[in-house]
Amino acid sequence: MKKRSPVSSIMTKNVITLNTNDSLEVAEKIFKEHNIRHIPVVKGSQIVGMLSYTDLLRISFVEAAYEDEQEIDSTVYNMFSIEQVMAKNLVNVNANTTIKEVAEILSKKEFHAIPVVDNDNLVGIVTTTDLINYLIEQF
């Protein structure tokens, strides 16, 4: 196992993003179409937040237990904006941060994805799944 491997070697580089003016319905469609769990939210090329699929489930969970799920999702999603639901105080790393350092951050925090930012521009995203796949390759 390489001890100083940069996170850039395992991160997703072609990142699917949302803008703050996108709707939560658009976000849900992207999550499902691409089978992903985290989407960085950007203004231009700068990251301003992270939306997770769990964030969407959290806002629609209570109502969905009693009603038609599709109808509730539309109603609840129209009540909130992406900026209201997304995580805002993000931890980020740069492309040269080691995989070990990223693993240490994720092991101590309650989130599962970290944006990779160089010169204030989003260049990638690394998730716990990326780390697990990296470990599997080592064996």
**Please, what is the CATH homologous superfamily?**
CBS-domain
Number of domains: 1
> In percent, how helical is the residue content?
40-55%
Beta strand %: 15-25%
Largest sheet properties = 3 strands, mixed
Cα shape:
globular
* Structural class based on helices, strands and sheet pairing: alpha+beta
What top-tier CATH class fits best? Alpha Beta
Strands of the widest sheet, in order across it, are 1-2-3
CATH topology: CBS-domain
Order of helices and strands: EHEEHHHHEEH
Q: Compute the average pLDDT.
A: 89
What is Rg?
16 Å
Low-confidence stretches: none
Number of strands: 5
Number of helices: 6
Q: Ends: how far apart?
A: 9 Å
Which CATH architecture? Roll
Keywords: CBS domain
Protein name: CBS domain-containing protein
Organism: Bizionia saleffrena
Domain CBS: 11-69, 86-139
Task: Write up what this structure looks like.
The protein is an alpha+beta fold and 139 residues long. It has one domain (7-138): CBS-domain, CATH 3.10.580.10. It is 42% helix and 20% strand. The chain has 6 helices and 5 strands; from the N terminus they run βαββααααββα. It has helices spanning 24-34, 53-64, 69-79, 82-85, 99-108, 128-138; strands at residues 18-19, 38-43, 46-52, 113-118, 121-127. A 3-stranded mixed sheet has the order 1-2-3. A two-stranded antiparallel sheet has the order 4-5. Strand 4 and strand 5 form a beta hairpin. Helix 2 crosses helix 3 (69-79). The longest helix has 12 residues, at 53-64. The N and C termini lie close together (9 Å). The relative contact order is 0.22.
